Amino acid sequence: MKRVFTILIVLAVLAGVGALWYHFQQNSGTISIFTSKPVVKGDLQSTVTATGTLAAVTKVSVGSEVSGVIDKIYVDYNSKVKKGQLLAQLNPSTLQTQVDKARASLQKAQSSYDSAVASKGNAAANVKRMQASALSSESKLKQAEASVNNSQATVVSSKANVRKAEAEYDKSKINYERMQKLREQDLIAQSELDDARASFRSAEASLEASQASLRGAKASHESAILSLDGLKADLESARIQVEAAEQQLLSAEASVNGAKADVEQSKANLESAQVDLGKTKIHSPSDGIVLDVAVSEGQTVAAQYQAPELFTLANNLDEMQVEASVDEADIGQVKVGSDVSFTVDSWPDREFKGKVTEVRQAAATVNNVVTYPVIISTDNPDMCLMPGMTATVAITVEERRGILLIPNSALRFKPAEGDRANIINAEGSADEREERHHGKRGDNQESKESKAAAAVNPHEKTIYVLVRGQRGKIEQRTVIIGITDNSNTEVVSGDLQEGERVVTGSTEVEKSKANARSRRRRGPGPF
Fold first, then answer.
1. DSSP string over 31-63
2. For 203, which of 41, 99, 189, 348 is 20 to 30 Å away at the CA?
3. Is the distance from CB of 371 to CB of 327 less than 8 angstroms?
């Protein structure tokens, strides 16, 4: 009996040691606790994110085209202005002096012009006088030529009369001498001789008169020739004087043209000086609001090379635009008309809406990152948006409704090596299969069909789902994904149902703590 009791005690001790060893084995080491989220149905928008700066749709820089000292500023920041309203006044004294000098120069040029016009009138009158004198000389020359011709005819006629008188003289002389001989012979009466002598004396007198008339005609002809030569000289002199007067007229006309050009130049200088004087008054080019005042009273502005900026105006702040910079990897998805939502730091709990109005092609490279400017229009009825604010922009490029959604963390989850035993139907992830496919393609470079067959869909992803009813077990699934909003991703196809829980992470804890948590969830046991 004692021996049996001893054996029972030994067996009891051994059983206690075994129980302690089993409990230690069950509670030693670590176990993975999986975190998960349910698969849901919902709406999803694929967006392109960017940052940008708010600006007025139409912003105008108002500058000064002339240099000077600011005498007075009539507006301040946020002042509402109308088109043509006076914004500032530059000191006009220097430019007023320029206007006065230009006006005096114009008066001097006008006086010179009037004098040149008067000289031109005198020259024109002198030309007419010289032309009249030349015409008179020409008329006198024609008269002298007629007189020469007449005297020449008189000389010819006088010579004919002399020849006729000589013939009569010779005839009467011969007759008289014949009568003398007949009288000596007493053949004629004395009266007949006396008649012959009278005829002879008459013929002699006629001859002398004809010769005298010829000498007078020759003298008159020579005088007419001398007068003609003088008139020719006078006509040549008159023509020379006409040419000289015409040259003086041309010179006077040139002087008038030059004086007229000086007048026009002086007028232009005066107008330019007056325009510059007018520019000392800085007016608003349009209705709007003053965003910036870049000068102060007493400040000197210099406009030698470019107009210095004095004011910045915004035409209308009821409408604003966001000038966003979109990365080159995303710019191809952005289209004109796309919906946009954005936030600003000043109103972190408020989301503003807008639309893409312009996608510009002027690329900018900063730190080797290429971006493109995208202009987004938005309304600003309550004036809470201000130029210069930084906007965080989300441009909607695609939208889905009523689709299966999984969190993006489920796509990033990769089980640890120690979790492999808890995976049901593990076939390797899509990435691992892609590596195997790449290896196959390397072994068969010549076979295009093998390459095509081995190609992996870039949208095929591996996820892990909690197995219902099996604590700590997860199941590997392959799905085809679609668009994403950086928080959730669309499931296009795959063995996945709404309500299933996808694994988003895991944490290793000690088995004793995990068992204790499990017991607390189940409640107290029978012992």
1. EEEEEEEE-EEEEEEEEEEEEEEEEESSEEEEE
2. 189
3. yes
**CA–CA separation, 316 and 105 (whole Å):** 46
3-state helix, strand, coil in the chain (%, to 5): 50, 30, 20
Extract the tokens encoding 177.
């001498």
Residues in the chain: 527
Token pair, residue 259, equals 């004086």
